[in-house]
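Internal tracking record. Fields below are filled automatically when a chain is submitted to the structure queue. Please do not edit lines marked as system-generated. If the sequence contains nonstandard residues, flag them in the REMARKS field before resubmitting.
Queue: standard
Priority: normal
Entity type: single polypeptide chain
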Amino acid sequence: MLRKPALVVLLLAVAALIGLPATGRSAPGAAHPLPARPVNVLPGTVSTDVHVKLQRDGGLTVTERITVPAGPPVRRAIPLRQRTGDGTDRVFALTDVRVDGGEIEIGPDAARMTLLPGEVAFDYTVRGAVAEAGDLQEIRWQLSGGWDLPVDRVSASLLAPQVPQDITCLAGPVGGHERCDRFEIGRTRQVQVLQFGLAAGERMDLSMRVPAGAVPSNAVTERRFDPVYAFSLTPETGAGLAGVALLLIGGIGVLWRFRGRDHRASAAATGPVEVLLTRADGTTAFASPDGVLPGQIGTVADERVDLVDVAATVVDLAVRNYLGIEELDGDWRIVRRNAPDPGLREYERAVHDLLVGDREQVLVSELAGRNLAPVREALYAEVVAHDWFTRRPDAERNRFWWGGVGLAAAGALLTVLLALTGPLGLLGVAVVLGGVALTSAARLMPARTARGSVLVGQIHGLRDHLRDVPVAEIPDADRDTVFSRSLPYALVLGEAERWLAKFTPLAPDGTPGPHWYAERGAPSDFARFREAFPAFATTLCAALGARRGSSGSPEPETDAVASR
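SYSTEM-GENERATED OUTPUT FOLLOWS
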């Protein structure tokens, strides 16, 4: 019979053989043993043992023992920049790096390793792994990942000054949420992790929390440009967009109300327009409303000087015997008949000087490259001097156009700043759109006076006159005068073809044309004039809007105002 000491020894030996605790049960609070597996049992795979210790200065000291299979060198990329969900990057740094059995190159975004077959020792310290998380601190690090070969087994342990809480271990594809095979707190209060079978490129991330103040926090975050985050629509950005939109719409509305809206004209002031007047001697004459001249009509009507306004002025000067127009083979000659006198407005003098000046004649084909700026300047000054506009419409339009460009540029800069610093990029976009809207609305900003508004109504009446007047009722003796005096106005209002057609039935073959138009040195008949005048007007507008190329041939003027 065995003695009691001998019996105890025998029981201990049997327990050791069958793998049971000596007491026959797990000790209270003890960890379940992690399953064992032979290292690198699969050919062509990597296996690693990782030991991590959280130091009291906040650094993570890491010791890795890596088994690299036979064959070519193995490569691994350790990410040092990881994206977070709030438009920032979590940035890590490696110090005190030592690799025995390979090489490492540390860049701003990743550390790239090249390891030779065999056993590799890799030691380093991680800075930036500890972040504040309310009343706790979170420690995060990627224990394995970035391999260009499959990983057969990762065994890891982590020791912290205080017992960790809320341990999370994720393994598998980057961005996935699959948990590691096994992770727990062991007898020594270490976190123990075990993972089998990671594919090439897959990772194993470990995060845990410790009480606040356990170690100094050293997490580093950097703002990154993430379009989805920078231009995200949230309740805050939505409210901001609504506020910016109301402010911009209200501002443009106020500007239009006080600067861009025409002064009202009473219906009695506009009234019917009578442009054919009967003199005391019984003759019929043409009289424009408010004494407006052809070039002024277009500027008042659309608030800008167009090429057709200048062309209509040329025809008007010919009708009034300051110029003559002669048709040639494929061209026209403009002849100087009388010098400017006090009866001409300043812009008419500018047109006369533009064409002939002190010369006797000029071909229309030679007008390319002439400077229209003095004509435009004088016409804009005219419409203000006649109290049709409170301010020059070109200056007013340019002021608001440049204001819109400046607002759009400021909005673009604001968009960049807001997008790089937070999720408020849409607010800057709203300011850009406001600038674009103001630029588009610039053409609406020139405001006519009450007198100018009356004239616009009268211009519509003049157009109706040109369309509806019974020309057959005009006395024969006055018909040529009424026709010629009205033609420049018809040209600038786009009614020239209709006006010519009205008089064609009243001009049988052989009827002389206007006195101011000749054909190859001889008076023209009306039929020829009726056919040639539209081509003359079109050619004149094209020549006035062309610039002289280096070869001497006319080229279209890219910044010329298009004719109507």
